[in-house]
Design brief:
Number of helices: 15
Number of strands: 17
CATH topology of the largest domain: UDP-N-acetylmuramoyl-L-alanine:D-glutamate ligase
Shape: globular
CATH superfamily of the largest domain: Mur-like, catalytic domain
Strand content: 15-25%
CATH architecture of the largest domain: 3-Layer(aba) Sandwich
Radius of gyration: 21 Å
Oligomer: single chain
Number of domains: 2
Largest sheet: 8 strands, mixed
CATH class of the largest domain: Alpha Beta
């Protein structure tokens, strides 16, 4: 079961922000989330990677660790994992049935507040599954924004982490960095710990004011350092120093994520040493980082004899750091881009940045109603005047064939612009 129709056929990316529905649902379920020890991670870019770094290191230390991320690429079960094992379809059906019964038996209440969305049901399933499984730590990635995201039903996390702030989901979060920062700061809770990799003073001031008002310890990733080359890094933290951290396939843009994750691990051990029975073992940190996997992020794969790099960069800031990583990793190569994007993204800036490389760009159709029409993308790509060849294709498979037909020896095929596009490519790999 790759896509699961959960309650009332709510499926896919349906945004109806607000906490009333999930609060009602979880109240009736006994609030399993209140019994979890949670690390809550938000931010515009990098939150999935930071989540996976932390999860991998905690798991390596012997803590029973759950991780909840979104969206999934090829399988629904990718969203909910404990110690390397994805939730089983039978477990999803069982827990979904539990919540379905709650909704059916409380129709008056849900007619008042509204029926839960796909993401709200999925989040509720995650919390109950982690509670039933008695995890030691739950690493929870924010879905969208902060204040009104379904994951923000969490009352007192061990720590809240915000990676960074940039413009994204403009139709929901708006075009103001200040407003977006205030919304993301909604995950900061009373008497907890707050950590960020954001460096702009105006945004940091917003975070600092909120954290101080709620009695949080406040940590900034810019006060620690990570340095190294060719996949071997050293970390100089608050008190912890590590050498020989190996991350062979790490993109340049992942270095900030790794630094933030290591700081978070260091602080976690300082603040919760006894309550988590968590004592840092440098070798286990290194093993956890070496075992880091984040599908669809600067991932190199073979498909039908083609060398393909797939990256989920889905906003202008993400494209910027992707291109920087491509320049560093492949200084003598050219690129063919396969690109699709959702309607709410700043596609003009994204295409202008891609156009600097020139070459070929292909716009495939994907199975998502939110996709920006390829005709609009083609017209703007032509206006940049930099792309040598521009194609539209009916699907990802056809786009790959077009790339193969137009590819020169030194060109690398890069799939980017949307996690949904990355997911459709990953499904092709499964079938191949």
């Amino acid at each position: 079961m790759n896509n699961i129709d959960l309650v009332y056929k709510k499926k896919g990316f349906i945004v109806n922000q607000g906490l009333d529905r999930i609060k009602t649902l979880l109240d009736l379920a006994g609030n399993p989330q209140d019994f979890l020890k949670v690390i809550h991670i938000g931010g515009t870019n990098g939150k999935g990677s930071v989540s996976r770094f932390i999860y991998s290191v905690l798991k390596e230390h012997g803590l029973k660790t759950g991780i909840y991320t979104s969206p999934h690429l090829a399988r629904f079960s990718e969203r909910i994992i404990i110690d390397g094992r994805e939730i089983k379809n039978s477990e999803v059906r069982e827990i979904n049935g539990f919540f379905d019964s709650i909704i059916r038996n409380n129709q008056k209440i849900f007619k008042k507040y509204g029926y839960p969305t796909f993401f709200e049901i999925t989040t509720a399933i995650c919390f109950k599954y982690f509670f039933d499984s008695n995890v030691d730590v739950a690493v929870i990635e924010v879905g969208l924004g902060g204040s009104l995201d379904a994951t923000n039903i969490i009352k007192t996390p061990l720590m809240s982490i915000i990676t960074n702030v940039s413009i994204d989901h403009r139709d929901i979060l708006g075009n103001s960095l200040k407003k977006i920062a205030i919304d993301k700061a909604g995950i900061i809770k009373k008497k907890s710990v707050f950590i960020t990799a954001e460096s702009r003073k105006d945004i940091l001031d917003i975070f600092k004011e909120k954290a101080d008002s709620l009695g949080n310890s406040f940590y900034e990733a810019r006060n620690v350092s990570l340095f190294g080359t060719r996949g071997v890094y050293s970390y100089r933290g608050l008190k912890l120093s590590l050498k020989g951290i190996k991350a062979d396939s790490l993109a340049k843009y992942q270095e900030n994520n790794l630094k933030l994750a290591l700081l978070s691990i260091e602080v976690l051990a300082q603040k919760y040493r006894d309550s988590l029975n968590f004592r840092i073992n440098p070798e286990k940190i290194k093993k956890g980082i070496a075992g880091f996997r984040n599908e669809g992020r600067f991932e190199r794969v073979k498909y039908g004899g083609l060398e393909v790099l797939v990256d989920g960069a889905h906003n202008s800031a993400g494209i910027k750091v992707l291109l920087s990583s491509l320049r560093e990793a492949f200084p003598s190569r050219d690129f063919i881009f396969i690109f699709a994007v959702m309607r709410d993204k700043d596609y003009r800036t994204m295409l202008r940045r891609l156009s600097v490389f020139g070459g070929t760009i292909i716009f495939p159709g994907i199975d998502n109603q939110r996709q920006l029409k390829n005709g609009i993308l083609k017209n703007y790509a032509q206006k940049t005047g930099n792309f040598k060849k521009i194609f539209i294709s009916e699907n990802v498979n056809r786009a790959l064939r077009l790339a193969e037909q137009n590819k020169k020896n030194n060109e690398l095929i890069v799939i980017c612009g949307s996690l949904y596009l990355a997911g459709e490519f990953k499904k092709l790999l499964i079938k191949d």
